[in-house]
Write a structure and sequence with these properties.
The chain is α/β, with parallel strands linked by helices. It is built from eight helices and twelve strands. Helices cover about 40% and strands about 15% of the residues. Strands 1, 2, 3, 8, 9 and 12 form a six-stranded parallel sheet that branches. The protein has a two-stranded parallel ribbon with strand order 4-7. Strand 5 and strand 6 form a beta hairpin. Helix 6 packs parallel to helix 7. It is globular. The C terminus is likely disordered. It comes from Hymenobacter luteus. This is Sialate O-acetylesterase. Keywords: Hydrolase, Signal.
């Protein structure tokens, strides 16, 4: 008679491993289906005029990546401080927002802020100077970084390597949904938003729920203020969906989600139980 026990044991181990992985993913997302991070770049007026009030109205928190040299930071510093006090993260988007002017389509890059002309030491120093400024605003020492224009290299060198100990993680600009184990904390995926409808934004969230992954939104203008923009109605629809489904969706600033991911990546996987 055919011995089916080895096949049974193999199937049992596979199922146990799958369930253990599923449980670990759920724990990473605060015992919810997925994580959603709302990020807003460049420290522009609409962040304070439109976004912070919208988030506060539904008691959701986001991450605002501030350019230290932005006049909106200097002119409205008390408002940024109040936003941080309400739980929003003030992330680091570099002091001068340098982008690689040698790449195609980078006519907007000025000679003074051309990352391709920077040294690695200059890039690192400016990012750390911005951290000092942000700490003076919010008193926080743990935060995340976002690459200006998504540019990560200077002369083939990944400058963030010297900044790993300064941040919990860094956000990139490549779209994609990932499990905690798939995330690269030096270049977290994000979806750049420009003109999408509320339904399209919500559809991304539903995909994250189904795949039990982390979804990072990258916004610039919300209701204007930037060439990359989403209208207020679409943004409001997204927030309402997230609030209505908060029992299934963990919405938190990048620093909190990245900290959970780092903990999950550093802890050994739960061993499969033996029959």
């Amino acid at each position: 008679m055919l011995n089916r026990r080895p096949l049974y044991l193999s199937a049992t181990f596979l199922l146990a491993g799958h369930l253990a992985g599923h449980a670990q993913t759920t724990r990473t997302w605060n015992n919810k289906q997925c994580a959603v991070v709302l990020t807003y770049d460049d420290a522009i007026d609409v962040d304070l005029d439109n976004v912070v009030p919208a988030l506060d109205s539904v008691k959701l928190r986001g991450t605002f990546y501030l350019i230290g040299s932005s006049p909106v930071v200097a002119r409205r510093l008390p408002e940024w401080r109040r936003a941080a006090q309400r739980g929003h993260e003030l992330g680091n988007h570099a002091l001068m927002h340098p982008c690689d002017g040698s790449l195609p389509g980078r006519g907007f890059v000025t000679p003074d802020n051309d990352l391709s002309k920077y040294t690695v030491n200059r890039a690192v120093s400016e990012v750390r100077a911005n951290n000092t400024l942000l700490n003076a605003i919010d008193g926080q020492t743990a935060r995340t970084f976002a690459y200006p224009c998504g540019d990560r290299q200077i002369g083939g060198v990944y400058f963030y390597e010297q900044l790993r100990n300064d941040f919990v993680a860094a956000r990139g600009v490549t779209g994609g949904l990932q499990t905690a184990t798939q995330v690269d904390l030096t270049n977290i995926n994000s979806y750049m938003i420009n003109g999408q409808t509320g339904e399209q934004l919500i559809d991304l969230v539903k995909k994250a729920q189904q795949s039990r992954t982390v979804l990072v939104f990258l916004f610039h203008g919300v209701g204007g203020g930037h060439s990359l923009n989403v209208d207020l109605k679409a943004h409001r629809q997204l927030l309402r969906y997230l609030k209505a489904h908060e029992q299934d969706i963990w919405v938190a600033p990048m620093v909190e989600v990245a900290t959970k991911i780092k903990q999950a990546q550093q802890s050994p996987a739960t061993p499969a139980a033996r029959p």
